[in-house]
Every structure is written in structure tokens, then in C-alpha cells.
Specification:
Length: 177
């Protein structure tokens, strides 16, 4: 799966020393990650002991590469941003399923091209998430719940043709929308 994309390429982007380059994820890989994440979250929600189930899932994710090392609940939004050819550099589920986390609410920090902003705003509005400017020219998408950020992933995938046309227009030098 997508875990092989950028394997071994680590550097410090946006101040994140654990940055993993997910450049090159496809829309189908982003959709697959959404489906894997959906199944894992459903396991937790069905469990009589959600904390123990989450721990078991964490062990499975550590041994495999189903979510490219990303937090459960935030991976699908991160993957969809990568498929849109944005550059996610940090993400956190804010401890939604347990454990200590750096952020108080779920978020993804990323870089985007100016030509993508209108599409990103449309997806954020559709999903009901916040989108703001961050330090150093980045954008931050955030929500009070990972489920809402997963709706953002769905909205991005729904706009894939528009994101792809921005990429093609940039490559060919045309100014079309």
C-alpha cells in the first residue's frame, strides 16, 4: 500500500522532526486508507473494552503499515491532502482513542498552492471543519472530532477531478480553473 511511498525519506518539514514524505499518494490509496481507518474505528466502537481494542490496533499498526505511521482518525484526511498534491507535514488525533498526544484537538498542518485554496475552502465548508493560516505559510485544517476531519477527506476525494485539473494546469502553464 501507500506506506512504501517516500519510505526512508525523512527530514524536518514545518518543524516536524518525524516528518514522513507521503508525496505521490494516489486518490485510490487515499480511499483505501479511509476504508482501513473506517474498519479500525468500527472495531473500537463495537468493542466492550474500547481502550484494550485501541491498544491491540496500535500494536497491529506498529507491526504493519496500514496507515503510513499516521494517527488513527487523522490518516484519511492526511492521505487525501497528499493525493490532492498538498504537502502535509504534521497531524494529530489529539488522543481521540487514548494515549498522550501533542495537540488539544485533531488537526493536519500542510502546505498548498494558491490555486488549491478555493477547492480546500469548499471542502472544509462542506465537511464543517476549520481551515486557517498557520505559521510559515502553511494551512491547518482542524475539528473538534476526528469523524468531522474524515468528512473533509471525503470532500477532498469528491473534488479529485478539480484538484487534478489544477495540477495539470500548473504543469502546462495554463491559467484555467
Amino acid at each position: 500500500m501507500a506506506g512504501e511511498v517516500g519510505a526512508g525519506r525523512r527530514c524536518c518539514v514545518g518543524g516536524n522532526r518525524q516528518f514522513a514524505d507521503l508525496n505521490g499518494l494516489s486518490w485510490s490509496e487515499a480511499t483505501e486508507m479511509f476504508e482501513v481507518e473506517t474498519d479500525l474505528i468500527a472495531r473500537i466502537e463495537r468493542s466492550s473494552d474500547p481502550e484494550r481494542e485501541y491498544d491491540a490496533i496500535e500494536d497491529e499498526l506498529y507491526d504493519g503499515d496500514n496507515l503510513c505511521g499516521l494517527d488513527l482518525g487523522i490518516a484519511s484526511a492526511t492521505a487525501a491532502l497528499s493525493a490532492a498534491r498538498c504537502i502535509p507535514f504534521t497531524s494529530c488525533n489529539a488522543g481521540t482513542f487514548g494515549g498522550g498526544h501533542a495537540e488539544a484537538y485533531p488537526l493536519v498542518g500542510f502546505f498548498a498552492r494558491l490555486q488549491q485554496v478555493e477547492l480546500l475552502l469548499r471542502a472544509a465548508t462542506e465537511a464543517g471543519v476549520g481551515l486557517e493560516n498557520g505559521d510559515g505559510g502553511c494551512l491547518v485544517v482542524y475539528a473538534n472530532d476526528v469523524r468531522t476531519l474524515r468528512l473533509f477527506a471525503v470532500a477532498l476525494v469528491r473534488e479529485r477531478k478539480a484538484f487534478d485539473s489544477v495540477r495539470v494546469a500548473r504543469r502546462t502553464g495554463s491559467q484555467s480553473r
